[in-house]
Write a structure and sequence with these properties.
heterodimer, A: 117 residues, globular, B: mainly beta, six-stranded mixed β-sheet, four-stranded antiparallel β-sheet
Chain lengths: 117, 115
């Protein structure tokens, strides 16, 4: 049981390049999230998904797109990278049944460090 | 909109002593959940403790406990018998069903445990 995994761990991009970050979870969680973390700040939500085939915008969605074609995977895309997107990106997932004692807890991946030059 | 405020950017504590990290929040929801996450230098986000707002009893997990004051919208974390491995950033976070359980984080408190 690997939990939440993220690929790659580190990447350097040039301005204008594109890339996709992959998040995978093996806990059969319905909900998945993408956050970014910048120095001196907590995590901020980029996009999230409440189930396979659904996505929604979070607090800072501009410049990013996401897809959830399979329940276990949540992809974050940067179509044209900008230096302002230099950050550490975290994926998280949670299992929600509408009841229960642990349903709303999010479990995080190890993070992807992205540097845009 | 939900907000979470951590007013202590940095704190330090002697090994084996007790330290309390502060967190205040604001939400219009009645049903919500509060969390403390730990982020060591490895950057991994690790759940420390969670509290359901409808429960009056304060949550505890071994050396970690919270003081949940719902009326004051306060959620502090107490670490007893501090250990060197507790050195990390600590984030307070809030979630509710109104926002599809997305987490709203504070800016964090950097805790250093001194030998």
């Amino acid at each position: 049981n690997a939990g939440v995994t993220q690929t790659p761990k580190f990447r350097v991009l040039k301005t204008g390049q594109s890339m996709t970050l992959l998040c995978a979870q093996d806990m059969n969680h319905e909900y998945m999230y993408w956050y970014r973390q910048d120095p001196g700040m907590g995590l901020r939500l980029i996009h999230y998904s409440v189930g396979e085939g659904t996505t929604a915008k979070g607090e800072v969605p501009d410049g990013y797109n996401v897809s959830r074609l399979k329940k276990q995977n949540f992809l974050l895309g940067l179509e044209s990278a900008a230096p302002s997107q230099t950050s550490v990106y975290f994926c998280a997932s949670s299992y929600w049944t509408g009841s229960g004692t642990d349903a709303e807890t999010q479990y995080f991946g190890p993070g992807t460090r992205l540097l845009v030059l | 909109a939900q907000t979470v405020t951590q007013s202590q950017p940095e704190m330090s504590v002697q090994e084996a002593e007790t330290v309390t990290l502060s967190c205040t929040y604001d939400t219009s929801e009645n049903n919500y959940y509060l969390f403390w996450y730990k982020q060591p230098p490895s950057r991994q986000m690790i759940l420390v403790i969670r509290q359901e707002a409808y429960k009056q009893q304060n949550a505890t997990e071994n050396r970690f406990s919270v003081n949940f004051q719902k009326a004051a919208k306060s959620f502090s974390l107490k670490i007893s018998d501090s250990q060197l491995g507790d050195t990390a950033m600590y984030f307070c976070a809030l979630t509710s069903s109104a926002g599809s359980y997305q987490l709203t984080f504070g800016k964090g408190t950097k805790l250093s445990v001194i030998p």
